[in-house]
Protein 1
Amino acid sequence: KAGVTQTPRYLIKTRGQQVTLSCSPISGHRSVSWYQQTPGQGLQFLFEYFSETQRNKGNFPGRFSGRQFSNSRSEMNVSTLELGDSALYLCASSLDGRGMGTDTQYFGPGTRLTVL
Amino acid sequence: AQKITQTQPGMFVQEKEAVTLDCTYDTSDQSYGLFWYKQPSSGEMIFLIYQGSYDEQNATEGRYSLNFQKARKSANLVISASQLGDSAMYFCAMREGDGYSGGGADGLTFGKGTHLIIQP
């Protein structure tokens, strides 16, 4: 079974631009979560989508948004990019019918975003 | 207070030795899951092992075992017979909630990680 895929793998943008990252979950997985990883803040939860609805959200500004399609693929968008948005963005999928704390998340390879 | 604490920023271990990576957690939920992930320099997070809060037995997956001490809120990862390929960052993570409260379980909360280096 194919793992979680993320595109693109690398991205360079300038301040003020917007960016869209894509994530395809493991086949059969219905929940997709997004995380930001930076050297200073570590790994932080952005949001989770299930059945095309945002189910949980971390503590990030409204510039960070996402959506999920009917085939469970997900996109996240960051508008008005800032230098501090430079990070590794990781997508994770899980089987999940209920968002149980016991549901294991499997991660993709990440998208490394650099904002100049 | 930090929800996940990993007190070892870095560790050097000789090949073939056993390794214990420390993790303590803080939660008031009764239902939660504890996870360990490995992140090589390539960046991908690799799932290693899971322990549920209601599991009475310690989890094991091949060379990985999780030493779960619920009363002490401790979930240490043990790697037996370490290999050079085990060199990586290791993250302990927790997911709280049982999915019945309407909002679903929270996202994973990660510790700051331990950088493990296996020496030949």
Protein 2
Amino acid sequence: DIQLTQSPSFLSASVGDRVTITCRASQDISSSLAWFQQRPGKAPNLLIYAASTLQSGVPSRFSGSGSGTEFTLTISSLQPEDFTTYYCQQLKSYPRTFGQGTKLEIK
Amino acid sequence: EVQLLESGGGLVQPGGSLRLSCAASGFTFTSYGLTWVRQAPGKGLEWVSTSGRSGGIFYADYVKGRFTISRDNSKNTVNLQMNSLRAEDTALYYCVKHDGSGFYVNWGQGALVTVSS
């Protein structure tokens, strides 16, 4: 199975900050990676797919990069609604796996 | 507009069974893969099972042999039959529609399954 490790698990930042979340895969997954945002009590929302493609309707302050085993999600200027939890997911092989999540908190 | 509406959740005793259904609308049902993802209270996302658009079926090891995914193309529903339920199966179960490349684009609001005596 492919393991995904997100870092950090918790991140404190301020409105307007630029933040980066990293997702490392236990083996090469090419660009078969997605990023989700999940607000409390809501279903996850796809932000980025194929490692770097912005999903329609997602603000341009979100961006993704990477390939192989290391990936990043960057939020260029944090807005109040961005303080929530983020997950990466690999779609290279079954079983599909998610990272453990990164909770972004207001400093 | 894509809509996914889960039903069938509830409280069940350990060892019991439950059948979740996901009624889909707003897209050509037979053209897309569908997946169940679960989330235990306060925990992260966990993939459960996928019914691929080409007929492939996949299960996580922790549900293999106990859960069965099926599609009813006449009713545009995907079902998850859950047998031999355990306390650790307690979670909110999401129905998810793939896009053409398999990415998880559309999510339902979830069905809560509680396994407890």
